[in-house]
Amino acid sequence: MTITIPANLAANTAASATALVEKAANAPKAELHIHIEGSLEPELIFALAQRNNVKLAYDSIDALRAAYAFTDLQSFLDIYYAGASVLLTEQDFYDMTMAYCERALADNVVHTEIFFDPQTHTERGVPIETVVAGIDRALADAEKRGLSSKLILCFLRHLSESDALATFDAAQPLFARYARLIGVGLDSSERGHPPSKFERVFEKARALGLKLVAHAGEEGPPSYIYEALDLLKVDRVDHGVRSIEDPALVTRLADTRVALTVCPLSNTKLCVFDDMTQHTLKALLDKGVAVTVNSDDPAYFGGYVNENYRAIIEALKLDDGEVYTILRNGFEASFVTPEERAALIAKLDANWNRATA
Ligand code: ADE
Ligand code: ZN
């Protein structure tokens, strides 16, 4: 049987989705999954390449952008690491971070928790102190404009455990020096590099009282999410969208309220899902999982955080209550103090209840 939706009802539904997209865009929000190197727009890559005399494999901005046709995570990472090769000085890291902060502020992000990949830079001879100093200085400036932030150091999982341990040792003084640097994470090529490979370095980070996150279940199987929870003892799981394949895991995530930092545009760009209507975000939300929405690598995936909200509201036909829950989850799952969390949620509530959709 085919059901025909009356034209006026269909038009109404489209109009209410548009209003909800706008309401979500205007709402104060948190972003909990953004790789700062993934915010490097092609224009800035070329400007920094020129400033630093770095030779790129692409001879124009358009040629670089044309290469952003990814088939999986690895095909993206190859270009992402090439893009990051233009970053050399403290000012470069400042400029990249400030450009992201401008975009985040324009999307009404009021709190952001930013990943950075020190090994991508130290292996090119850039000291880790230079990386953190430039990022932190920009975040301090953005804080004066209403964007609070935390910083999370990610280990590259395609490199060895001993490389991660050495990176952690080199970063130890920075954890003491920079109040914003509060945690460690795990990113890069997931398949073949399970969380278990990094159990010891995460144990050391936990002993220092750092927050712990890991990419798991983006391309990798649910067993990687179990490893992130049981071996790394993470506070949040980055992506985690493949958890839907294991009902017991979904129940566990829902019961423990371990949040997933989901990145919808990333998942479709990297072919985790064929298209946005296939995304598991709503199914996970329906089962009580603390899902959040984030941009991952916005310069590469076609949009900052508000574009991610737009994509799921339209494709998954989310309603007002579901969007509010996702926005609130962002604050609930953030690594702020209980007082800061209460203030952020009060700000969201005041905005959401005032707005119409
Ligand atoms: N590094 C930058 N973006 C990433 C992603 N989506 N998955 C794993 N590592 C990454
Ligand atoms: Zn990521």
Automatic annotation (TrEMBL):
- Enzymatic reactions: adenine + H2O + H(+) = hypoxanthine + NH4(+)
Query: What are this entry's molecular-function GO terms?
Result: adenine deaminase activity; zinc ion binding
Question: Looking at its record, which EC class is this enzyme?
Answer: hydrolase
Give the residues annotated as active site.
218
Question: Could you list the residue ranges forming a coiled coil in this record?
Answer: none
**This protein's UniProt keywords:** Hydrolase, Metal-binding, Nucleotide metabolism, Zinc
> Can you list the GO cellular component terms from the UniProt entry?
cytosol
Q: Which residues bind Zn(2+)?
A: 33, 35, 215, 296
Positions annotated to bind substrate = 297
Q: Which cofactor does it need?
A: Zn(2+)
Task: List GO BP terms, alphabetically.
Answer: adenine catabolic process; hypoxanthine salvage; nucleotide metabolic process
Tell me the ranges covered by the Adenosine deaminase domain, including all copies.
Answer: 28-350
Cofactor binding mode and count? Binds 1 zinc ion per subunit.
Q: NCBIfam families this protein is in?
A: aden_deam, PRK09358.1-6
As for family, the record states: Belongs to the metallo-dependent hydrolases superfamily. Adenosine and AMP deaminases family. Adenine deaminase type 2 subfamily.
**Which PANTHER family does the UniProt record give?**
ADENINE DEAMINASE
Protein name per Swiss-Prot or TrEMBL: Adenine deaminase
Record the organism: Paraburkholderia acidiphila
